[in-house]
Amino acid sequence: MAKANAFYAQSGGVTAVINASACGVIETARQHKDRIGKVFAGRNGIVGALNEELIDTGKESARAIAALRYTPAGAFGSCRYKLKGIEENRREYERLIDVFRAHDIRYFFYNGGGDSQDTAHKVSQLATAMDYPITCIGVPKTVDNDLPLTDCCPGFGSVAKYVAVSTREAGLDVASMCDTSTKVFVLEVMGRHAGWIAAAAGLAAEEPGDPPHVILLPEVAFDRPRFLAKVKATVDKLGYCVIVVSEGAQYADGTFLADAGGKDAFGHTQLGGVAPFIADMVKSELGYKYHWAVADYLQRAARHIASATDVEQAYAVGRAAVELALAGRNAVMPTIVRQRDQPYRWTTGEAPLKKVANVEKKMPKRFISKDGFGITPSARQYLAPLIAGEDYPPYRNGLPQYARLKRVLAPKKLPPFEV
Amino acid sequence: MAKANAFYAQSGGVTAVINASACGVIETARQHKDRIGKVFAGRNGIVGALNEELIDTGKESARAIAALRYTPAGAFGSCRYKLKGIEENRREYERLIDVFRAHDIRYFFYNGGGDSQDTAHKVSQLATAMDYPITCIGVPKTVDNDLPLTDCCPGFGSVAKYVAVSTREAGLDVASMCDTSTKVFVLEVMGRHAGWIAAAAGLAAEEPGDPPHVILLPEVAFDRPRFLAKVKATVDKLGYCVIVVSEGAQYADGTFLADAGGKDAFGHTQLGGVAPFIADMVKSELGYKYHWAVADYLQRAARHIASATDVEQAYAVGRAAVELALAGRNAVMPTIVRQRDQPYRWTTGEAPLKKVANVEKKMPKRFISKDGFGITPSARQYLAPLIAGEDYPPYRNGLPQYARLKRVLAPKKLPPFEV
């Protein structure tokens, strides 16, 4: 393929390391100026392509781009916007092609989770369906760790580390106060459908009795009497109990423990507030004084405590995406391939987008302890390397100095479009 | 005074750096073996003295004691237990003296906040009231930063740093999603009576438009229409709004927002938390999609992101406490004395316990911006040095390696006592 421009966009919930993938894409593209001209980043994801709001990353200094490696959240803006199928919404795809053609874009890099890989897959079909030649590569990202065909998902390792570190720290706090004060601490973490994040809290426990003592996973139907009995037994034995609950914790019939009622753009139920629900249950049934925390965005934005492994992998999939595109691959996503557990070795591979799109990787049953309240040695073996290593951002005046981009939009060439 | 043993105890809510003070006390005492014999630490604070549960810190290695410098929470156990006045509860004081006499304890170091300094002050009165010679030194500690006569309180700088860093990170997250998703983020932080911690979030904003955009302080009566107007104006201008709310935020009549009996969309009473209360108010009045977080113990246990200044000061007051005792001072508390703002210079001083006990330092009015939703340059000048510097704990397998003490109890010499 002759020299052409590239489009990169961030999609869905952001992470502590999605910008490291952007850094990998842009820095690698800059090393191949003979093949890739400009890299445009969509302002607010794919919406930026539809609106012809293309951030010209060429206007950013090498230093600013390098700073993306240690900057959390989506530096170009992300979006929750799912393209429908080509048959249902031909208009949007025609618009994409108009914008791509107007700006000579022949490379499409889409950085996101399951829904986003579905979008990437649909765009890849444009080549044949609408006769526009484009190389389309997905770049994996999700704190939920639920993409198939990759050993893990960039973004997950850092939230896993945050949750494990926070559980250890808060656990020490409760342990020191429990004799005369709080006996039960509940930490709510993300994970709508899969308990990967809650499971990672289990890494905090290295010796018998260490917190967390109870993990409530979406994979295990919540059983109120069994749960309360476990909490009571733990407090009787240790004097306190640390509970980590996934926002997706649910009853046997699939009802979420805390269902806030609303729906997001994808029709997913809005969750939140299972921690106070659980804490109140413990208080009213067992009478223990409690505290609870809801980490929410803090956990996925916590670049200050990112996993070095995760940062490296996020960068690597960005770099690999460009390399795959230049190697003539299309409709694929770079993956993380685990070569061995200890010492941990990994490399990048690739998976076809059609096999990635809309497939959700569940946590294997063998990762969940028999009583359903903890993780197994297999889970630890899988999870431990993903949180390994620290990769601190630079600080000034006591605060991390994250990238501030200029975000200069390329001049528009087309009439406006109603998204 | 001839050689005698020392008693050290941790009291009240723990912090990321109270063990650094313990480290300062014990390491300094070990340098003066001619004057101070054993250092006993109360198991669970003063309760440990009443129960004659005295942890013999001499059984801990130099390495374990050094590790306290980077270990959060209360390594010896803390307590919420306030001694009454000597007249009201002579029995407890007599017991304390029995225990002190049995273990030749003539130095008393009590590490805590306002209530604890009151306890320390009462114990100091034993010398004259009950004819038992004891040197009594308070060691300041509180995330609430509300002790008088000291420029700041060890423990506050680290929670301030955690809150400022988290606000910056979560702010970037919301900013990247706001076009198509969450527009308002609410972070609830500690501070029941004073807004010091919420105010510290303001440090995250270094340029106009930076989050946080609204800080709700207990010092400023909550005005619903003005608050909602401010949130709307912020979203209109920036596309999103980050709100940091103190758990102590209150109406003009002193009612806490969190206790206001809010109801959720289903008419259920809110299970606690001013953050969900505020978020729900914003949603129902302005219609914005929201997220909220409650940091709770995570903020005060977050040793992984402690302020280096705070760690140094926590250690320094521990060291100074022993030095004051050895210099023959009694019924005093070492303080932090600010010598200059920029470059920040500080040293330790001392204050009499009778002037510290039960006095609460409020945040000055000049620290609060005119509209009541932010902090002033004076506040920034005061707060900024307190979060300066990073002091990372050592990590293994991706997790901070905090001290694990043996906590060997000294053999009991007295009959049991009913606390």
For the largest interface, the chains and their residue counts are: A-B, 81 and 78 residues
Described by strand count, sense and barrel closure, the largest sheet of chain A is:
5 strands, mixed
Terminus-to-terminus distance of chain A? 31 Å
CATH class of the largest domain in chain A: Alpha Beta
* CATH architecture grouping of the largest domain in chain A: 3-Layer(aba) Sandwich
Secondary-structure element pattern of chain A, one letter each: EHEHEHHEHHEHEHEHEEEHEHHEEHHEE
Structural class of chain A: alpha/beta
How many individual helices of chain A? 14
What share of the residues of chain A does DSSP label as strand, in percent? Answer: 15-25%
Helicity of chain A, as a percent range: 25-40%
Mean pLDDT of chain A comes to 94
* Annotation, overall tally of beta strands of chain A: 15
Description:
The structure is a homodimer of 419-residue chains. Chain A is an alpha/beta fold. The first copy, chain A, folds into two domains: 204 residues, Rossmann fold, CATH 3.40.50.450; 147 residues, Phosphofructokinase domain (Rossmann fold), CATH 3.40.50.460. Helices cover 34% and strands 20% of the residues of chain A. Chain A contains 14 helices and 15 strands. In chain A, the strands form five sheets. In chain A, strands 3-2-1-4-5 form a five-stranded mixed sheet, sandwiched between helices. Chain A has a four-stranded parallel sheet with strand order 7-8-6-11, sandwiched between helices. In chain A, a hairpin with a 2-residue loop joins strand 12 and strand 13. In chain A, helix 1 crosses helix 12. The longest helix of chain A has 22 residues. Chain A starts with a strand and ends in a 19-residue tail after the last strand. The relative contact order of chain A is 0.18. About 3% of the residues of chain A have low confidence. The interface between A and B is large, with 81 and 78 residues.
